[in-house]
Specification:
Helix content is 20%, strand content 32%. The longest helix is centred in the first third of the chain and has 16 residues.
Length: 428
């Protein structure tokens, strides 16, 4: 981010990138271009219009001009991964990263946020939900980044992934950072109204802008930051019971027995909904294939689970004998999981790494209990995982917030519910 309020967003990488310029764009080679174009990685440079460049920039000559990138990957490495053409305002940069090209969009922060809140959810979501998400998306963007991706030297499989893995632009356009899918998502004036009504508003705590994390569905209880990322506690990312009857909640979800009771039940909380009107506010069309996110099941044969773990971990565990929760967070999410095989035993964490190791893409969450079936010589032939929630569960629960919006809560109340000890503050 720079002093003019601009942000750079990495959109797409590849050996070749096809794009379309709607209207005139001034190129860094001082020529004007429009229409269908292509850049190619060649000799460690960018090949364009019969010339090689170290980097290449296209600046729109009118505010109404836009560029379109072809075959942009969305939901990368998740179960909803797909490709689509996306259109963007602002400046287009092409840079070289190792042995590939990356398309980077330079855009005004507030314009960027209009696309983010319409990409993270539907543009038809309630106004109060859009306002709340505008504030947290802006806060997350402007907050100081935390510790980078790290592997603990004590436990080689205890890994977490952080936002500052990008060296050549501020944020990426996918779920690793915040979904940013261009101007095509901004389909009504409600998005503009939400951004304008909250312009410059962020959440702060103890003089710092809040690193306002969010996920699709907490599953009933939100998780602590330190159980998913760096070992840092933030007073605004506390355990939150996602409902109006929070005083009645007595289970300790760090305890395996209590976690099992909770995960195998359907508690009355905000994010426990199947209302299609509410679901459509959060899940865009391709996400709506997912219908069982509050409580879900995943079954594996012995052959499937042993092969998936071998493939994703790079370790041959042999046949899988057991999956044992070593440490759970306050939401019931497993933070450390022991995998016991006939050839190898290891502990894996944190929550995202567990989800990666146990799925071709990602499990919905690491809040699950394990059932073993059809044992032969103490080796289960089937594993059934019963789980809760979708995502890491830290901060705002998008489904829960959508329900709160429908119930008449204002955006300030939604934010106060999910981010304890935080304050709304206008910084520009």
């Amino acid at each position: 981010m720079n002093k003019t309020g601009k942000i750079t967003v990495g959109i797409l990488s590849g050996k070749e990138i096809d794009f379309y310029l709607s209207g005139n764009f001034m190129c860094s080679n001082s020529l004007i271009y429009n229409g269908i174009k292509k850049v190619v990685f060649k000799n460690n440079k960018i090949f364009f219009d019969n010339n090689l460049y170290e980097k290449l920039t296209f600046c729109p000559q009118a505010d109404s001009n836009f560029f379109e990138l072809k075959n942009v990957v969305t939901g990368k490495q998740f179960h909803w991964q797909q490709r689509e053409n996306q259109q963007f305002n602002g400046t287009l940069h092409f840079i070289v990263e190792t042995d590939t090209l990356t398309a980077v969009n330079e855009i005004d922060i507030e314009i960027y946020l209009k696309s983010v809140i319409a990409s993270e959810m539907s543009a038809n979501a309630s106004l109060e939900l859009l306002k709340a998400h505008a504030v947290i998306s802006r806060s997350w963007l402007l907050a100081k980044p935390q510790m980078p991706h790290k592997t603990s030297p004590k436990e080689g499989n205890i890994v977490w992934y952080e936002r500052d893995a990008h060296n050549n632009f501020d944020v990426c356009a996918d779920d690793h950072c915040q979904r940013y899918q261009g101007i095509g998502r901004q389909t009504n004036d409600r998005v503009n109204q939400a951004i304008e009504a909250t312009a410059g508003l962020v959440l702060t705590c103890e003089g710092e802008i809040c690193d306002a994390r969010f996920s699709k569905s907490c599953g009933g209880v939100s998780e602590l930051f330190e159980n998913c990322w760096a070992d840092v506690h933030f007073p605004y990312l506390e355990k939150v019971i996602d409902g109006e009857q929070s005083a009645d909640f007595s289970l300790d979800l760090t305890n395996n027995d209590d976690a099992e009771t909770f995960i195998c039940s359907a508690p009355d909380c905000f994010c426990n909904t199947k209302d299609p009107k509410i679901i459509s506010q959060i899940l865009n069309n391709y996400d709506r294939k997912t219908t069982d996110f509050f409580r879900w099941q995943r079954e594996f044969t012995q052959q499937d689970i042993s092969e998936i773990i071998r493939k994703k971990s790079g370790i041959d565990f042999g046949e899988i004998i057991d999956l044992l929760p070593v440490k759970r967070g306050v939401s019931g999410r497993i933070i450390e999981l022991q995998i016991i095989g006939t050839k190898h035993v290891a502990i894996v964490g944190k929550e995202l790494e567990i989800r990666k190791w146990l799925s071709e893409t990602h499990l919905y969450s690491s809040a699950f209990v394990v059932e073993k079936h059809d044992c032969i010589n103490s080796v289960p032939q089937r594993f059934l995982l019963r789980g809760a929630g979708w995502g890491h569960g830290v901060g705002l629960c998008q489904i829960g917030a959508a329900v709160m919006g429908e119930k008449g809560y204002g955006f300030e109340q939604i934010l106060a519910h999910y981010y304890k000890n935080s304050t709304l503050e206008k910084i520009y």
